[in-house]
Amino acid sequence: MALHQLHDVIRRCQAIPDDGFKAEDYDQFQMAGRSCLEEGKTAEVLDIVTDEKNKEIVKSMGWNLLGPLVKIVLKKEAESLQHCLTTLKHVLEVCSPKELLVGLLEQIEDADVDNIAETIILLLQPLQTALLKLGKKKASSLGMSLSTVLNQISQLPVPYTKEQEEDDVYGLCQCCAALIEFVKPFVDEVDRGRESKAIVAENEQRIELLKFCMKSLGNPVLQSQLDKIPDSAEDPPLRHFATEILVILSCIGESFPALLLHHLVKKKAEPGFLEEDVKYPMESLACLSYLLFVQHIGIERFPTVFSPVFILQFNMQYIEVLLKRSEESMLSKGLELYEKSLQRTEDNSLPMQLLEVKCFLRVPQDLVTVMTLCPIQHLRTEALAVFQLYIDKFDTEGKHKLFGCLLKISQHAGVQGYIITNIKNQIDFSLKPGNSNVWFSGPQLLPLLHLVLSLPEGPETDLLQNFDRIMGSLNLLRYLLIRDKEWDNHTGIWTELYKIEENFLKLLHTGLKMSKAHYEAEIKKTKENNRKRGPKESKAVCTLTVGGEKLSNVTPEMHLQVLQSAMFTFDLIESVLARIEEIIEVKVKP
User: Fold this and answer.
1) pLDDT tens digit string along 310-355?
2) Beta-bridge partners for 546
3) pLDDT at 550
4) How far apart are CA 149 and CA 120, in angstroms?
5) Worst-scoring range by mean pLDDT, 374-388, 413-427, 531-545?
6) For residue 542, what are the β-bridge partners?
7) What is the largest CA-CA distance in the chain?
């Protein structure tokens, strides 16, 4: 039935001039052709399409068969596969490239999720041929094609392990390899155009290729594991794809330093093209920086004239972008880029003035967020190591300012305690012979000491929540009183002792009394309630907040243990406080 309809359409159209086809002719040809293919009449359709008498009809209407042909080819049914491939090839040869372009992109865009990779791999070469037939006026069509393909590729899961990358179950790696082959002739055209100084068409095409590279760096490259395989001569597929993207950037005349410095030194807007942040997205440039400075891909094309400090400075904006993300692949790349950028600089070399650049204080805050809130243990550990490395790179004035700023902005007691330990280490170093410096001794140190030796909210401070900070402060004070003799007073601690006693130790005593009284009353109340409860009630659960932490499903017995643990914490603080007061009493005794 469908075959008869197709023959009828063909006979009627043969009598119509080439430019006289109407919309209904196209619709009837498409419907009859699709029905024939779906009914398995693939050999008959091939005969009709390749018949010389039907050449003009196929030239005008044949692209309408792309959908059903692609659908059957993807099924890979032996009896119809070869017929459909031959028909598809013929349609691609005779049809208008503009109409083919629309039809091919439609098939890629409408591909089922399970067939995305196969559809892209099947149609990229025909799409390339159609674009090349458009001549010089193809930049916008090339851009549309690359955008469509990348949008579809972005739906494919990115392999997480090398084994997954080798298996390539979803076909992402195959698509990336095919995509590199797809763009090569267009890259070559731009490269040749640069050499011959052709301007307009090649420049538009260069912009489209630049946007393709930037988008590819953002996804899938930034999401991928890009380490080399030990003892392997070949790069993994996605690392190879990343390498090829950087090769393309070089071929189309993009300078790596100019790209990475783009947001620091804004270029004038180029009229007629998309906004700058579309051509130069921060995440893509962050990926470029990661490839250069961590993976050393393309590093031979990066000039060696830039100082390590300057490289760190422009990388901070990209580290910030990566550390603000929550995905493991992003965070790990941000931490690696941060670490490698710091390792290029010498210890104690970064000047204090760098902290006046906003990102030099914002990035450590992002690092603290990773250290304290990231659910992935190894990333928290890596973040802490990078945090210490960052501290180590500043000179003494820089460390002094950094410590003060971080203590003021950090809300995490554990981080505050860690910073206070670093302050103690710097003071200890400065007190050793030959290491004296003005920033961790004498008048310059005192504002930092007063910041450390204080309670954030006076006697009402939550001592449990701020335990790490308080213990760090007490241990620092005890160290200073023992290490810095009152007759030397290098740190000025003895001069300021009366202020510290009044503004810190006295308030801490008050806070301890209040906290212990509260928890003693809670313990007494809990014990009484437990005695009154029956056996069943004693197993009931509740929610308890201790030190700012919510504890769920707490039984009365557990409730009592938590309260007793809090009392033990207060006793620990009190014992260190008592030891400090003993030292003071002995030292100041006439």
Assistant:
1) 999 999 999 999 999 999 999 999 999 999 999 999 999 999 999 9
2) 549
3) 59
4) 7
5) 531-545
6) 554
7) 123
Q: How many residues can be counted in the chain?
A: 590
CA distance 590 to 68: 102
Candidate from 40-44, 243-247, 416-420, 512-516 with smallest mean pLDDT? 40-44
C-alpha distances out from residue 396 to 340, 423, 429, 475, 567, Å: 22, 11, 11, 22, 39
Task: Write out the DSSP string of 160-185.
Answer: -SHHHHHH-TT-HHHHHHHHHHHHHH
The per-residue pLDDT for 531 is 78
Neighbours of 280 (CB within 10 A): 19
- In terms of Cα–Cα distance, which of 380, 385, 389 is closest to 345? 389
Phi-psi label, residue 275: left if phi above 0, alpha if psi -120 to 50, beta otherwise: beta
| CB 126, CB 100: distance < 8 Å | yes
83-88, Cβ contacts within 8 angstroms, sequence gap of 24 or more = 83/42, 83/43, 83/45, 83/46, 84/37, 84/42, 86/46, 86/50, 87/42, 87/45, 87/46, 87/49, 87/50, 88/126
pLDDT-derived band at 524, boundaries 50, 70, 90: confident
Bridge partners for 545 per DSSP = 550
* Amino acid making up residue 242: A
Are 409 and 365 a contacting pair, CB within 8 Å?
A: yes
Separation CA 170–CA 156 (nearest Å)? 6
Question: Which of 241, 344, 361, 348 is CA-nearest to residue 302?
Answer: 344
Q: What is the rounded distance in angstroms from the CA atom of residue 477 to the CA atom of residue 491?
A: 11
In this prediction, residue 590 has a pLDDT band, given cuts at 50, 70 and 90, of low
The better pLDDT of the pair 560, 553 is held by 560
As a whole number of angstroms, the distance between CA 138 and CA 535 comes to 82
